Amino acid sequence: MKNPAARLWDAVRAWERFPHLYEIKRPKSPLDLAHIAESFTPYLEGRNWESVENPAH
User: Fold this and answer.
1) How far apart are the C-alpha atoms of 55 and 57, rounded to whole Å?
2) Residue 21: which residues within 8 A CB-CB, separation 6 or more?
3) Predicted TM-score (pTM) above 0.70
């Protein structure tokens, strides 16, 4: 069995057979969203940028 990266690359290459297919998405479950938030939390906490939620003082 191929490793996940090789399987993903095979899928990307197969995509070339559909020239008018521009994007593939799948719905994200609440568990998926929680994992994404957990993964990005250290990065976001380490940043101190000006934004609507964090205006400059």
Assistant:
1) 6
2) 15
3) no
User: Rounded to an integer, what distance in angstroms lies between the CA atom of residue 52 and that of residue 36?
Assistant: 21
The structure tokens listed for 49 are 């940028």
Rounded CA gap, 24 and 18, in Å? 12
Judge contact between 45 and 37, C-beta under 8 A.
no
53/33 Cα distance (integer angstroms): 20
Average pLDDT on 50-57 reads: 69
Q: How far is CA 48 from the centre of its chain?
A: 22
Q: Which residue has the higher pLDDT, 46 or 12?
A: 12
How big is the chain, counted in residues?
57
The per-residue pLDDT for 56 is 67
Placement of tokens 């940043």 in the chain:
47
